[in-house]
Amino acid sequence: EPIPENMIEDRRLWIGNLDPRVSEKLIFVFVLRFLYWYHLLKLVQKHGTIDKFDLLFHRSGPSAGQPRGYAFVTYSTKVDARKAKDVLNGMVMGHKRMVVRWANSVSKEELVKPKPELIIPALAGAKTEKKVR
């Protein structure tokens, strides 16, 4: 039986402003990614039992394979999540000060809601080009 979303929100944290250079002794990118993930995981585990841990990486572009600079952690209890938030927020890891907030969930209604049309005034007068063959 899946856990209701409102119960997960009370235990889920967003951890941002993460420094990708957690260990400067590394040579290979694969090792860097693994140790970055491992170091952060060990740090958040000190504050309670973790149900889920997601460190996000860029999928494409010039930063493909590099950490995005934030992670999501879901603790087993609200008490553990609150304690971790209080302790980790503002803690320095690597060369940056971490930011820890309650994670926001996006409802299913928001996902299907139509997005507003983006109009860029500078491009409003642009003409559509016709291709010549």
Task: Describe this entry's structure for a reader.
- GO terms for molecular function: RNA binding.
- With 133 residues, the chain is an alpha+beta fold.
- It has one domain (5-104): 2-Layer Sandwich (Alpha-Beta Plaits), CATH 3.30.70.330.
- It is built from 4 helices and 6 strands.
- It has helices at residues 5-9, 29-45, 78-88, 108-112; strands spanning 12-16, 50-57, 67-75, 92-93, 96-97, 99-102.
- The strands form 2 sheets. It has a 4-stranded antiparallel β-sheet, with helices on one face. The protein has a two-stranded antiparallel ribbon with strand order 4-5.
Task: Please tag this protein with its features.
133 residues, alpha+beta, 4-stranded antiparallel β-sheet, 4 helices, 6 strands
What percentage of the residues does DSSP assign to strands (E)?
15-25%
The helix-strand sequence is: HEHEEHEEEH
Which architecture name does CATH use? 2-Layer Sandwich
Inertia-based shape:
extended
Largest sheet: 4 strands, antiparallel
Mean pLDDT score: 75
Count of spatially separate domains = 1
Give the terminus-to-terminus CA distance: 60 Å
User: Which radius of gyration do the C-alpha atoms yield?
Assistant: 20 Å
CATH domain topology: Alpha-Beta Plaits
Low-confidence stretches: 23-32
InterPro entries: Nucleotide-bd_a/b_plait_sf (IPR012677), RBD_domain_sf (IPR035979), RBM18_RRM (IPR039157), RRM_dom (IPR000504)
Pfam families: RRM_1 (PF00076)
Keywords: RNA-binding
Domain RRM: 11-105
